[in-house]
Structure formats: C-alpha cells, structure tokens
Amino acid sequence: MGGQPEHVIIPLASMVLVILILVFLFYHFRKKRHHQVTPARNKFQNDNENTNASDEDLELPLFSLSTLRNATDNFSMDNKVGEGGFGPVYKGLLENEQEIAVKRLAKTSNQGLHEFKNEVISIYKLRHRNLVKLLGCCIEGDEKMLVYEYMPNKGLDSFISDKTRSKLLDWPARYHIIDGTARGLLYLQTDHRLRSLHKDLKVNKILLDADMNPKILVFGMARRFRANQIEENTNRVVGTDDYMAPEYTREGIFFRKSDVYSFGLLVLEIMCGEKTRGFVHKEHSNNLIEHAWRLHNEGSSLQLVSKCQGESVNVSQVLRSIHIGLLCVARQPEDRPSMPSVIMMLGSDGQLPAPKKPGFYIGKANLRIIKLIWNTFYE
C-alpha cells in the first residue's frame, strides 16, 4: 500500500511536463508566425507611437535597402528612368525577375516620417486596373523609398512631347487612354472607401503599361476625403500651376471637381498632341484652353486634333471628347460635370450640355489690357 502513491506521482509529473512543453511550443511558434505576417506594422509602430487601429491591421511589404540596391545596380544612372519633384525614379529587377520602379525620395523632402507613412498606407490600399500598383516601401535610416510596378512605356508626356512617339498614338489608343484615366479618377473619388483627391493630375502622372493601358500614379498630393466632404481648404498650394483649377490657385480651395478640371485639360492635350505649357499657335497668342474654346465656338473643333492620329479618327467620338474636355475646364466648379457623369458621357451618344466659359480664359479685351500694362512698365 505504501508504494502506490509513488507509481501515481511519476506519471502525473511526466504529463505535467509534457503539457508545459506543448504550451511553450504553441506560444513560441504563434509569436514567430505573428512577426512574420506583420513586419510592416511593427516597423511603423516603432517609428511612430501614434499608429491608429486601422493601420495596425495592414500588411505592407517592406523592401530592405540592400534588396533595392541590388535590384537597381546601386541606383546607377543607367537605371534612372525619371525624376520628379520628390526625387529620382529607377528601374529595378528583383531576384524573381520581377521588374520594379523605385522612387527614391529626396533627403531634402519636407515630408516627415508620419506623413510619409500615412500616405504609403493609403496608397497601398488602392487597387484598380487604372492606378499604378504600389508594391511596398523601404524605410532605413534617412532613406525613404516607394516600390511600384514597372511601366515599360513610361509616361504619357513622353508621347505627347515627342513627335516620333506621338505617331504611335492613333485615335483608338488616345480614346482608350482618356477613358481609362477617367475610370481611375472615378475610383479615387467615389468608388474606393477612402475617397481621395489626386491634386496633381497631368500627363506625366499617366503611365502606360506594355499594352498601352493608362495607369494614374498616385503619390505626393493625394488626400483622403470623408464620404460627405465636398472640398478641402489648404494653406499650402501644391501641384503644377498649369493644371491647377482657378479656385485652387486663387483661394486654396480644392474640390473633387478641381481634379475634374485637370482631367479636362489632360483631354485637350491628348486631342491636340501638345502640352499646355509652352503651347504656341502661329496665328494668335491664346493658350491651349482659349484655343480649344475659340475653335469650339467657331464650329471648327476638328482643327484641334493632332495630325498624328492618322486616318483612324472617329469624328463623332473626337468632337464629343473635345466637348467633354471643355465641360471639365469650366471656370466655376459647379459648372463642371462629376466623374460619374464624365464616364457616362464618354460611353454614350446622348446630347451634351453646352460648355460654360473656361477657367483662365483671358479673352481679347483683357488681353489688350495686359499687353498695355506690359508695354507701359517693361518697354
């Protein structure tokens, strides 16, 4: 009888030990797996303690600096494919043969880590066939980089400004670019739950993939909009002034329809085959918008069309696109169509409303006054 407790205690002790080991292993592997799944969350939490709950649930791929150095051959000039206001862009090739575009933010950029983090998280959540896909980012030391899918045909501006390449854009290609850009902007403004403003839509922000599909590049200007918000006030006017809506440059107020204005100007550039900046006509000193408005009022809108479009031009589609472009550049935001209306007008043949006087339309009377002032003070 006295030996029986000893036989009971030994198996019980063994069972307790096994259970403790299993519990330890369970928590160990769970913790390890947790760290593997959410590397970006931990990185951002360490960099900024104010990470909110919605950010914490996001899995954002982080690229190491060494990986991007190897992919771009140490950011060699041979791999440099462009440079914008925020820094240079390099073509890269990952070990899995995937081509990437690496935007290396200038170290002199005024954008802080918190602002950078918030914008990267917002952009990463955007998923649409007409937006350039953000693959991840790199944050090491004073380096901040964005990694995008690579667009082999580069920016639309390289076609608009190059007479040789411009011949590759026949009318079907141009219409496809207009329609795709409109759909990408519609997604930003209304279809995605984050609802954003682009604030810097222009030809070099429209990139073209291998099949000439347009994709809007989003970074640096985009801002979130609440569902019921219709405007944003800002003391810091950013963007390219040639494409800015009048209310933005004048009062620092940006509406959803301020992006519509930029889209309208983009349409006129695609139709004309020239950028608004530096636009020159041999017969007058009007800018591109004034030129298009004048031709429309004269019933001669086809004269705006670039000869590079060849014989494939669909006249009714061309005239309709120019008309829609002029509707979008109306001086007053309330006179511009919404992006859902733009999509509907592009895809139908119904009657269009008459466009209102465009923004930055100087007119002959005001032009004479400006010339008089110029001659008085500078001659």
From TrEMBL:
Q: What class of enzyme is it?
A: transferase
Q: Which residues cross the membrane?
A: 6-27
Keyword Membrane carried by entry: yes
Does the keyword Glycoprotein belong to this entry? yes
A Pfam family of the record is PK_Tyr_Ser-Thr
Q: Which reaction does it catalyse?
A: L-threonyl-[protein] + ATP = O-phospho-L-threonyl-[protein] + ADP + H(+); L-seryl-[protein] + ATP = O-phospho-L-seryl-[protein] + ADP + H(+)
Domain annotation Protein kinase: ranges:
75-360
Q: Which UniProt keywords apply?
A: ATP-binding, Disulfide bond, Glycoprotein, Kinase, Membrane, Nucleotide-binding, Serine/threonine-protein kinase, Signal, Transferase, Transmembrane, Transmembrane helix
GO cellular-component terms in the record? plasma membrane
> Recorded E.C. number(s)?
2.7.11.1
PROSITE patterns documented for this protein: PROTEIN_KINASE_DOM
A single Gene Ontology MF term assigned here is: protein serine/threonine kinase activity
Cross-referenced PANTHER family: PROTEIN KINASE DOMAIN-CONTAINING PROTEIN (PTHR27002:SF1003), RECEPTOR-LIKE SERINE/THREONINE-PROTEIN KINASE SD1-8 (PTHR27002)
Q: What is this protein called?
A: non-specific serine/threonine protein kinase
Could you tell me which species this protein originates from?
A: Deinandra increscens subsp. villosa
